[in-house]
Amino acid sequence: MQDKLEKFGRGSVIQHGRVNNRVYLMKLNKADFPEVLEYIENLTISNSYTKIFCKVPFWAVPGFMAKGFAMEAYIPNFYKNRADVFFVSKFLDAERASGGEYDKLEGLSRLLIAYRTKKTVGQANKSVQIKVLKGKDVNEISNLYKKTFDSYPFPIFDSAYISQTMKNNVQYFGIEAKGRLVALSSAEIDPQGKNAEMTDFATLPDYRGGQSATRLLSEMERVMEAQGITTLYSIARLNSPAMSKTFLKHSYKYAGTLINNTNISGKIESMNVFYKHI
Q: Which domain holds residue 21?
């Protein structure tokens, strides 16, 4: 079972379903506002979802705030290195809104303080070969994700979905060892907005601890900069300090935490937002 991805109006994109038990407004087209706001609220009520999560440009924020949404994260100069983006949410269930991961939030606070003065990452291991993955690799990509995650907010276990995303501005990067794929990640690119989400990091259990995510991220940044991307960001698990450290080591800034937002590794978890301008 996977959440549904659908288009609304003149270009807005919405994901919704039982897996994440939410509506996610992934992309807002100005021509669809404010009609899309009423649509996602009705969609949430009719399906008894417990959260609405929206990524919206600065100009739409007052309209969402007037409807009871609150900001959970914020990235300045997100679109074309000029316009800001806000991650706003509305909870329809008190238990989901309560957090419940305060110990992990305290750990994140300590982590942010520890990395406040660290600005650079060490040199990547030149002996590790990272390649951009192609259509012939989709089965191996989906199989690696199946071995890594118990659940995921998008259907990355489906090779047909991987193939489709490759045709829609998603680039996959991989590390091979002994002739097989052992770690990978992806960059979901918005060519018009000049931003990219650095996401879908996964490493086979036997190869963890070898800084695969750090090496992948370094190469992804190099490729994104060469393609004219100006803002990089990621939505990473609060429950994974190692992933947070990876972004902080690469000089990403903390933008906020999305409470009980995403079904990943078998349960709904809170997610941290990090960003970097290049």
A: 4-97
